[in-house]
Write a structure and sequence with these properties.
CATH topology of the largest domain: Rossmann fold
Number of strands: 14
Strand content: 5-15%
Radius of gyration: 22 Å
Helix content: 25-40%
Shape: elongated
CATH class of the largest domain: Alpha Beta
Strand order of the largest sheet: 10-9-8-11-12-13-14
CATH architecture of the largest domain: 3-Layer(aba) Sandwich
Structural class: alpha/beta
CATH superfamily of the largest domain: NAD(P)-binding Rossmann-like Domain
Order of helices and strands: EHEEEEHEHEHHEHEHEHEHEHEEHH
Largest sheet: 7 strands, parallel
Length: about 350
């Protein structure tokens, strides 16, 4: 029996130990040369193609590599796309589900926990005006009324109510943000129609609709997946609802925010500031108007989750295990499109390609 083929179209494991593990299990491993990060400054979008008889693939949520319906349908025995990342937005998940193919992802705490911590850093940098104070002193200045900042939490002694933080998307990241904010005694709003009521209660959030969240929040932070429903979720109409002193944070996916509408809202002082780890086009055009807005915009190079001992490293064994289980005819952990599991089991359950 020929060895089952698996294609790694974005390499994450630099030392190749997981590749050796897959090969030792009897897999014919095909590897796209070069680390995925090598393409960070490229702009050419590539539709991934699989060799005949390929049964699985591994990669990251890199906007330059797309796994299309055509690629998934090309091999009738294709079983799984295993992602090293939390995001799966460069895979046609709907097509995978229709075709009976599993898509797994890697929601490691090192990843989503780091995003939550980075969100806090962005929030505090904007509200406490850390950059402005540093620059002011280094340029010879000292105390100045223009550098007054925001006190986040409710104060008991003088009836200060504190600010309201609105969390759009109460998944792992949104919940951790809520938990990190709990000691600050801010008012927490959250919007997520797919989360059970008990989750809101457990994490101290008021369950509200998006319009209410935008209208009442001093900080709006986005933590949703990128889907057809969330693409351009925040645009001109949404900015018109927000407070003039409001801050927007996007550490999810760039395309969730209409950046032209964001520029207009900031330029016209409809909102106060924005902190962005992600943009619709990455890296951005140096002439992107947002870049010219000074301290109204804090930009980060889509690496909020890259921490010491973190990043994608902890996800390597997760994705590797997913491939091995799927090729043994077992349902792996962390299936993103869970609705496909019954059909997948009918097609591949108990059919071991590694025997």
């Amino acid at each position: 029996m020929p060895k089952p083929k698996v294609f790694i179209y974005n390499v994450v494991d630099e030392d190749g130990a997981s590749h050796d593990r897959l090969s030792a299990a009897g897999i014919d491993l095909k590897i796209n040369p070069g680390l995925w990060g090598d393409s960070a400054n490229d702009t050419e979008v590539v539709n991934v193609e699989f060799e005949p008889d390929t049964v699985g693939a591994m990669g990251v949520a890199n906007r330059l590599f797309f796994v299309t319906r055509e690629a998934l349908a090309a091999n009738p025995d294709f079983r799984i796309v295993a992602k090293y990342t939390v995001g799966v937005d460069n895979v046609d998940v709907d097509a995978a589900t229709e075709l009976g193919i599993l898509v797994t992802h890697s929601p490691t705490e090192s990843n989503w926990g780091a995003v939550a911590e980075g969100t806090m850093a962005i929030m505090l940098t904007l509200l406490k005006r850390t950059r402005e104070k540093d620059r002011h002193v280094k340029h010879g200045g000292w105390r100045d009324p223009s550098l007054v900042t925001t006190f986040l939490g409710r104060r008991m002694q003088d009836d200060y109510p504190g600010i309201t933080v609105g969390i759009v998307g109460l998944g792992r990241i949104g919940r951790r943000v809520a938990d990190l904010l709990a000691p600050w005694r801010v008012r927490l709003l959250a919007c997520d129609p797919y989360i059970d009521d008990s989750v809101f209660v457990h994490h101290g959030c008021e369950d509200v609709d998006l319009e209410t969240l935008l209208t009442e929040s001093d900080v709006v932070t986005l933590h949703t997946n990128l889907t057809e429903e969330t693409a351009n979720l925040i645009g001109a109409a949404q900015f018109a609802l927000m407070k003039p002193e409001a801050v927007l944070i996007n550490a999810a996916r760039g395309a969730i925010v209409d950046v032209d509408a964001l520029f207009d809202a900031l330029d016209r002082d409809r909102i106060a500031a924005a902190g962005l780890d992600v943009l619709p086009e990455e890296p951005p055009d140096p002439q992107l108007p947002l870049i010219g807005l000074g301290d109204k915009v804090l930009l980060s190079p889509h690496m909020i989750a890259y921490t010491k001992g973190g990043g994608l490293g902890p996800a390597i064994p997760w994705a590797t295990d997913a491939i091995l289980k799927a090729l043994r005819g077992e349902v792996p952990n962390h299936v993103f499109n869970e609705e496909v599991i019954p059909r997948w089991l009918e097609r591949f359950g108990g059919k071991n390609l590694l025997a």
